[in-house]
Each structure stands twice: as structure tokens, then as C-alpha cells.
Amino acid sequence: MAKMNYEQSVLRLEEIVSQLEGGGLTLEESLKLFEEGTKLLTRCHTQLEAAEQKITMLTAQEKGEE
Predict the structure, then answer these.
(1) Model pLDDT, residue 66
(2) How many Å apart are CA 13 and CA 8, to the nearest integer?
């Protein structure tokens, strides 16, 4: 999981949701997937915030150069 980029993380989240919605998992399996999903969600959120900050910075720089 440490080497996953944003897109890979989102795909894995989709897989997790599908597995959880599909049922047929034990409680232990469900909890393990839920835990993985929350970690991935946190990572995605952090990556999106970083991208937003970079866009804001670049936009501000561009406006300053005009």
C-alpha cells in the first residue's frame, strides 16, 4: 500500500467497497477491509489537499507575474 499512487488507491477503495457490499465476508475480514479502506481514504484526502495547495500556490504566482 505504501507505493500506491492516488489513482491506484482509488481503485483499491472501489474494490474494497465492492467486496464489503457483496457480503459473504466474515466479521474479521470485513473489519480488516474497513481498516485498509480508512487508511486509503486518509491517504487520498492528504494527496488531494497537497494538490490543491500546489494549485493555489501556482495560481497565486501566475497572478503575481501578470
Answers:
(1) 59
(2) 9
Contact 45, 6 (CB under 8 A): no
Q: How many CB atoms lie within 10 A of CB 50?
A: 11
| Count of all residues that appear for the chain in the document | 66
The ranges assigned to domains in the chain are 6-65
Question: The C-alpha cell of 15 is what?
Answer: 474494490
Q: Each residue of 10-48: pLDDT tens digit?
A: 999 999 999 999 999 999 999 999 999 999 999 999 999
SS (H, E, C) the chain: CCCCCHHHHHHHHHHHHHHHHHCCCCHHHHHHHHHHHHHHHHHHHHHHHHHHHHHHHHHHHHHHHC
